Amino acid sequence: VRLFLAAALLLININIMQNPTAAIIIIGDEVLSGRTLDTNTQYIAKKLSEIGVDLIEARVIPDNRQMIIDTIYELKTKYTYIFTTGGIGPTHDDITSEAVAAAFNLPLELHKESFEALKESYASRNQVLNKAREKMAYIPKDAALIPNPISIAPGFRLDNVYVMAGVPYIMEAMLNQILPLLKHGKQVKSKTIDVIIGESLIAADLESIQNKYPEIKIGSYPFKLESQYCTSVVLRSSNYEKLDQAYTELLKLFENYSQVS
Amino acid sequence: VRLFLAAALLLININIMQNPTAAIIIIGDEVLSGRTLDTNTQYIAKKLSEIGVDLIEARVIPDNRQMIIDTIYELKTKYTYIFTTGGIGPTHDDITSEAVAAAFNLPLELHKESFEALKESYASRNQVLNKAREKMAYIPKDAALIPNPISIAPGFRLDNVYVMAGVPYIMEAMLNQILPLLKHGKQVKSKTIDVIIGESLIAADLESIQNKYPEIKIGSYPFKLESQYCTSVVLRSSNYEKLDQAYTELLKLFENYSQVS
What we know:
The structure is a homodimer. Chain A is of the alpha/beta class. Chain A has helices at residues 2-17, 29-32, 40-50, 65-75, 96-103, 112-123, 131-135, 168-178, 203-212, 240-253; strands at 21-27, 54-61, 81-85, 108-110, 138-140, 144-148, 152-158, 161-164, 189-195, 217-225, 228-237. In chain A, a hairpin with a 2-residue loop joins β10 (217-225) and β11. The model of chain A has no long low-confidence stretch (mean pLDDT 94).
């Protein structure tokens, strides 16, 4: 029994120490056709990183009902949080709300407060709530709203799935309301050394420091500067003491190379 | 029997008419941390679209051996082609080649011609092939090489999986050699109308045209221009006659609205 208790406590402890995890689902034919460069992933990635939520994967899928359902269904049990962007607007190709509802086996319902808010918003611009606009007030039953301070039409949350707009500035406004409500983990901090030398010449140094500091993730990213080979060495960790140590050691190993100023 | 034959012919016919499909796997912690904006997906998407290969999904995953193996394993039977970028360089965090080999249950082997080519290339710059550089000549057994005209270290193909560099200009050089070797489908062409009106006011028009032309995909993308609501309406299809017809009909429906010049 004592052993069992110790094991249980250890598990609880590991669980407490681990950061929440996340996946992003970018929904939109326009990204897969190459028409649109997805920048939502990078924005969400940076924001999650700041609050210690570990982004494990991102997927781009088409405006296809079955693929939305399958992807939501697969990922929602794998990660603490799922964030989707795209497909909640007024037109025929906006099918995300209905598909997410289906993934949870829930009906779409007219959300009265959203309906009134949209009606009021359009009335203030001397416009009417036509059928297309009304569509944006249909939300899966019992979903929690994600307010949209910009164009009123809300996003929503079902369990751990956050459904947001695809237009970047609207998505950003939604995300920034969601972030304070999430479990925060320990922020992964990073330190970067941009050194004027090709990465293959410092590979052995990087590997030795990586082996010495398993709690740090060391990434090596080559780039060119006026035809000189350079390397951006990025150290990432939520153990700030070890991060400082590894950084200091690498700086010392690199003292004979110039750094990009 | 006649019915069976007719059904078989129909199936063959459908198969011939369908475009090849593809998925992209972007491998790199730097994209998931928000450090790097992925532009490889858009480049590959545009190029595939030009040759009639339908990109069905794109995934960003970390430099994590098991996730690389699992993702390759899952996707390679789902689509005609898989394209990966990232993780084939000389440093400790470049683990893609080994992981892809493992997904196919193959060993990594020193590829003699690549080894010689790399040695020669470095010798021409008065440099030696150190252990890190040598690593780039290790390729899964029996893989076909994807030549790298820029920095020599090759990518490779195993069955339908194309493994390319992550640095955009190197990836692009590799992809442009691969494209002529792929099965080409019928190119999906697109026509765009940028109209100065909010999408909710043309939603009914769009839906009616969408219903009339099921072989066209009509996407509606809102944007703002000097605080005016605008909509980019994109029609995509490999049926060019229907595409022209739908486009002409939409232009007529929009004749009372200004277009973005």
